[in-house]
Amino acid sequence: MVSPEQVKNTLEAQLADAVVQVEDLTGTRDHYQVIVVSSAFEGQSLVKQHQLVYGALKDALSSEAIHALTMKTYTPKTWAAAHGAA
């Protein structure tokens, strides 16, 4: 199992200036939802953005420490637009 803090720290370490929110969906520490905002996603398709997240968490995913992962990814600009910031 992987703690929410470990998921957050891994993503922040692997993705440029990432701001990460992690939610344990089941309380079992193996089903997570993440929201990641990073400038590393600039110019990348949604598929590529998700591949970057999967790549950052590859060890936990391949060892099945994380069984299920859902995600939402944003650039700082798309995050601001989606959440009403200027």
UniProtKB/TrEMBL annotation:
SUPFAM superfamilies from the UniProt entry: BolA-like (SSF82657)
Pfam family, one: BolA
InterPro entries to which the protein is assigned, alphabetical: BolA, BolA-like_sf, BolA/IbaG_stress_morph_reg
Domain of life: Bacteria
Family label: Belongs to the BolA/IbaG family.
Name under which the protein is recorded: BolA/IbaG family iron-sulfur metabolism protein
